[in-house]
Automatic annotation (TrEMBL):
This is Amine oxidase. GO terms for molecular function: 4 iron, 4 sulfur cluster binding; electron-transferring-flavoprotein dehydrogenase activity; metal ion binding. Gene3D superfamilies: 3.30.70.20, 3.30.9.90, FAD/NAD(P)-binding domain (3.50.50.60). It comes from Funneliformis mosseae (Endomycorrhizal fungus). Signal peptide: none annotated. It comes from the Eukaryota. SUPFAM superfamilies: 4Fe-4S ferredoxins (SSF54862), FAD-linked reductases, C-terminal domain (SSF54373), FAD/NAD(P)-binding domain (SSF51905).
Amino acid sequence: MILRLSPKINGSNILSTLRIRARVLSYKTPLLHKISHQSSLKQPFGSYKSFLNSTSRSYASVTNQEVDPRLTAERFVDETDVVIVGAGPSGLSAAIRLKQLANAEGKEVRVVVIEKASELGAHTLSGAVLEPRALNELLPDWKERGAPLNQPVLKDEMRFFTEKLSIPLLPLPSVMKNKGNYIVSLNSYVKWLGEQAEEVGVEVYSGFSASEVLYNEDGSVRGIATNDMGLDKNFKPKENFERGMEFQAKVTLFAEGCHGSLTKTLMRKFNLREGRQQQTYAIGIKEVWEIDPAKHIPGYCLHATGWPLDYKTYGGGFMYHMENNIVQLGFIVALDYQNTYLHPYKEFQRYKSHPSIRKHLEGGKVISYGARALNEGGYQFTGLTLSKVDASFAKVCVGGSIPKLVFPGGALIGCTAGFLNLPKIKGTHNAMKSGMLAAEAAYDAITSDTSSGPITLTAYEESIQDSWVYKELYDVRNIRPSMNSPLGVYGFILYSGIEMLFLKGKAPWTLKHHHPDHAVLKPAKECKPIEYPKPDGVITFDLLESVSRSGTTHTENQPVHLRVRDKKLPVDVNLKIYDGPEGRFCPAGVYEFVDDENNPNEKRLQINSQNCVHCKTCDIKDVSQNIDWVTPEGGNGPKYVLT
């Protein structure tokens, strides 16, 4: 069946749909949810007859259980030109650019954006200092449109912390200077981008989790399907069960953010990492504070490295003073850390206790908390030992930690591919630009395609390599790998200074990432336990108290979305050899080892999936690579504010 609904459908409350049931022809699907803004439904896509007669051959992915006939019911299908998975900066920029091009030429190109959060921005978390370069290209009149870029950066500092001291790192390289940039809430920025998308005719549906990639018989991507709603923890349909829905498209753009769950499956199917290096990641943990007005320094931007991390561990903190006495405060820990006893959340709490940070927070209050993984890999090209190579030659070699971006029927955009500029400590502008370039390639392909075969956006990958995104990432390609020397952070600071101040990307060599992040964790017997101070409840807090500030909720009695493949490995390997690192690297208290009621004197892994803030760190750092993060029911997860 084919159905077309209006934008702004929200997946949080089925009861609110009573007043619109007549408009959807008594069709009960997960799309029957609360309208987040007051707007009427558009006319159904196609005739009602085609709506009734259209079918799908795909079924729910349920295994090892008796098959309930509802699980094999045909799914309803919505046909579109382009479907975009993820309403973040890259996904929305792609959608806006597609409609701009179509509207300018008077062509009908239908663009649908699917977002798993309950509302736009609810799962969006970043520093964030925004470089408006891509925004200037996409929406040159953004100031007149009321973009929430209200606080320009007025003061930049980079410091090295010891436990008590704060040492300025001078001179500040130009790549790290933020003149012309803005301190923003990316959460608010994404909401605004969504409004701009709707104005040009993009259909944005929040509250729906894309859980499956659909394929044509020739192996090309056909679109995505949303997950079934109303399953219990054993994958059995409950009374409110609703079959998922298919979105079939000529082009599917995946904008899932860092380490996307569908992107992982695409990597395997199309071998997108062939000839590339592995990606390397970090976890970013953040709080939003409202501070004493007397301590507020509008436009102040601080970055710090050093304490509380040891010299072998890459990471650091940030503090941004935006408007209205709001401070964006966070800490980043690279996930290639070696000490199994390191606890990223508790390192963040220690960071806040530093005199240079604490003085800003005293007398203030926390508004919001959250965490997310981020890509750090960049454009390291591999397999070259040449003494001389330039960017034009490197382009034809490989893309480093960035995978191949295109495949038949679709493409990867934004942070799901990994365009973060690590020295700049920002990637939103690159993510947006990648979405815009993919949109231009998709539009050209759709409007000029006369063949019946799948569309491959070769022009998108080529345009990325010819863009300022490529040059920007190429110029800083050696920064993150320079941490891999025996000197650790000291060698990193020395080399990075030389690279950014003098070499500026022109070095005739390219450093490499050594190992996947999970592979470097040391067994407990080789690590020294870390003593962390107890939280004071004023500046530092208990983990679960912080999680309560994330607004995280998950429907009770649904399948656990953190899938452990081998049930024995968490105890036999992770606990016995590494002393249970999942209980420390998770920033939401999801994992804990408890007494096994069925086996006296034994432990078992308990998964508190209701706490999950969707950071995906477990999927990356688990030493056994035994955890698979998949999407829960649409609308579940955090509900971030001002992040």
